[in-house]
Amino acid sequence: MSPPIARSRRGFWLRLVPTALAVCYLPLADQPGNPVDGWAWAFGLGAAALFAFGRRIPLTMVLCLAALLVVCDRIGTHADVVVILATFAALIDLALQRDRRWIAVGAIAAGVGLFANFVDVPLEPLQPPFFFVVTGVIASLLGAPILLGLHLKAARLATAQAQQRAIELEQRRESEKAMVRATERTAIARELHDIVVHHVASIVLRVGVARHLDPDADPETAAALDDVHATGTAALADLRRLVAVLRDPATIEEEAHAPLLDPADLPDLLHQAVARSRNAGLSLDARVDPTVARLDAVRGLALLRVVQEGLTNVLKHAGPRASATVTVEATADGAVRIHIADDGPAAAQRPPQGGHGLLGLRERIDLLGGRFDAGPAASGWRVQAVLPAAVTPAPLAAGSA
């Protein structure tokens, strides 16, 4: 239950206090010589109902209760205690919701009602000392609920101002964070475009020139050059899309990689990665579950990067003549298991790794709540990863706040 709803329900029960007083007090006030008649019940429950449902009309409520005080005094019922309590509570509402002018009007009306109820007028002229004493008592009685209402009003205003300042501060912080992120993304995009994209474009151009200058090259060399050209062209297209995403302010609060992968294309992208490794001379047995096309973009990209980095490491460290297996399967609970193994030289015979590929994969999988493991196997090297099932938010229960 949210705090506003809790406060609303708590306020509703507090408005039933005069009703509870009427129900409890009037039977106790019933005496043999001075019975509680129907007028007492009508005025008592009427005043309680007026306070319970008159929150939106505080001035009208105070005026009606003041009139009830006069009527109760003229008729002589036992309901005056309930009406007086409801009047004091109504003055708190009036001080909370209205300005000083209407508070003064309500206080005067309530004062007249209390004066008529406390003093039998105009049976005899009031002596000045008695008049001032009664007036002071009534003013004190009326001042207490009004001051309480003004205090609650000031407290609410201070709380609202504090909340507004907190919201503005949080918005300012988010704006500053967005500005910093935008600056960083722009700097990264600039470096990618000016350095990485330039070099990759140069590689693609030079490979294309080499292929054109040697049209009679043996089939293996021609296939290798074609594969390098195709891979470089695809990398260049991805880099340009990434630069465009990094420079787009609309994607600052989104994952930068979301537009770079359509999950429906994931099986084909995995098969392309496998095909490139085979073209490089790697003997590769690959099994890819086609249901991975139903993955979301974030998990799909993580899966693709694990397979790409794993095969790159096989080519780098096990050699193009090694044998390897790639298995990508979806489990019944929606998770995805990835297993890449090769029969290359033992880990101790492999050169030390100076890159951050495996570290980046581990961080990517950890962010998704999965498991990642890479290390030597009985023969060669293995990479294992588990992508967890997507978390679906639980629906709110009916009637919950």
UniProtKB/TrEMBL annotation:
EC number annotated for this UniProt entry: 2.7.13.3
Catalytic activity: ATP + protein L-histidine = ADP + protein N-phospho-L-histidine
Recorded GO MF terms: ATP binding; phosphorelay sensor kinase activity; protein dimerization activity
Record domain Histidine kinase/HSP90-like ATPase: where: 302-389
Coiled coil spans: 152-186
SUPFAM superfamilies: ATPase domain of HSP90 chaperone/DNA topoisomerase II/histidine kinase (SSF55874)
Transmembrane segments: 12-29, 41-71, 102-123, 130-152
InterPro entries: HATPase_C_sf, HATPase_dom, Sensor_HK_TwoCompSys, Sig_transdc_His_kin_sub3_dim/P
Residues of the Signal transduction histidine kinase subgroup 3 dimerisation and phosphoacceptor domain: 184-249
Gene Ontology CC: membrane
Keyword annotations: ATP-binding, Coiled coil, Kinase, Membrane, Nucleotide-binding, Phosphoprotein, Transferase, Transmembrane, Transmembrane helix, Two-component regulatory system
PANTHER family: NITRATE/NITRITE SENSOR PROTEIN NARX-RELATED, NITRATE_NITRITE SENSOR PROTEIN NARQ
Full protein name: histidine kinase
Species assigned in the record: Asanoa ishikariensis
